Q: What sequence folds into this?
């Protein structure tokens, strides 16, 4: 059979030669390894996803590019025929899925059924309410869509835990986690109030001068509570509820990697704060009380999932810190394993459900 990647780059062709290519009359599976196989529906979904990625990429270069006006027979992406580019994207996702299944077997990683059911419910909603008509025409069942969309990330999380979690071959110690946290994170608390009001018509106006001064006085009081009266953010929240006569306060208590901050005025204000000192700031039509924790003290709140002192609130999950710490290394590992994956391709399925068929069906909608 004629290979669909007739004009793909040398690297893609070389990778294709590393696998054995099946050609049978059975079109129920698309790619498989020794222990796992990808259904035709999962494959079709990955081509659909690849088509979306292609449109987004073309739209970046030409804002007028859309499904309706792209000539898929002549269009190129990164000097590759667009249809071949879409195929390569779909194939990469197919290999990723199978590679994760194989690694899960190797490390004894298993996605809890309850976790999958929860994730599946979200995708099932999208299937039933947005995609059902077109996906049924394409041949993508709800089950295939949910597995193809949800399982890769769930499997990756479980494999990550098996490698870097307790007892893993690259277990990250509590000490190393705390050091990374102290060197790279900012921990903070803030509460805010609006400096504008909105009427029934949606018009926005400044609050009165008297109200503004009352708010400013309240927030100066909150800063004084933290800076000079040895009070806690919880105390500030409690006082805010009284002052503003409300049952809920718009507070945030969090810790973020500094590299993930700085895009907003609020982020910049937090990073400019001195640790252990509260400040008030007016920005974006809001008044803020911002308090940046002493990072070494906050590091003592890091708890693992199996820590018996782990409380429902007030702790920082060690697993979240480790993910940030090791994500680049882990992704490099997955890329390496994907490149080594031994698999078989079913040409009967791949050519029956090719990119041209996908485009034809969608264009008829």
A:
């Amino acid at each position: 059979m004629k290979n669909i990647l007739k004009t793909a780059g040398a690297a893609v062709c070389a990778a294709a030669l590393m696998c054995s290519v099946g050609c049978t009359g059975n079109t129920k599976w698309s790619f498989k390894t020794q222990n796992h196989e990808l259904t035709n529906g999962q494959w079709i979904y990955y081509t659909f996803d690849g088509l979306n990625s292609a449109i987004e990429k073309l739209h970046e270069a030409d804002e007028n590019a859309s499904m309706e006006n792209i000539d898929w027979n002549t269009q190129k992406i990164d000097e590759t025929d667009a249809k071949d580019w879409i195929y390569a994207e779909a194939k990469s996702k197919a290999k990723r899925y199978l590679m994760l299944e194989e690694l899960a077997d190797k490390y004894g990683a298993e996605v809890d059924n309850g976790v999958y059911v929860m994730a599946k419910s979200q995708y099932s909603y999208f299937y039933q309410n947005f995609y059902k008509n077109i996906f049924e025409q394409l041949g993508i069942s709800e089950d295939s869509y949910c597995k193809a969309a949800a399982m890769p990330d769930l499997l990756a999380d479980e494999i990550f835990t098996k490698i870097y979690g307790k007892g893993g071959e690259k277990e990250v110690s509590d000490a190393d986690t705390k050091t990374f946290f102290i060197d790279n994170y900012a921990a903070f608390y803030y509460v805010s109030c609006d400096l504008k009001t909105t009427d029934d018509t949606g018009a926005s106006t400044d609050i009165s001068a008297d109200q503004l001064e009352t708010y400013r006085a309240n927030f100066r009081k909150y800063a004084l509570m933290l800076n000079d009266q040895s009070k806690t953010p919880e105390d500030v929240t409690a006082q805010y509820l009284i002052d503003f006569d409300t049952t809920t306060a718009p507070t945030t208590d969090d810790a973020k990697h500094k590299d993930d901050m700085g895009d907003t005025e609020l982020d910049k204000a937090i990073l400019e704060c001195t640790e252990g000192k509260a400040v008030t700031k007016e920005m974006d039509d809001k008044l803020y009380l911002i308090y940046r924790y002493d990072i070494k003290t906050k590091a003592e709140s890091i708890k693992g999932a199996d820590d018996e002192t782990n409380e429902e609130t007030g702790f920082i999950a060690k697993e979240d810190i480790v993910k940030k710490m090791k994500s680049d290394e882990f992704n490099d590992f997955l890329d390496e394993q994907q490149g080594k994956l031994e698999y078989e391709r079913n040409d009967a399925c791949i050519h029956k459900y090719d990119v041209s068929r996908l485009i034809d069906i969608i264009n008829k909608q």
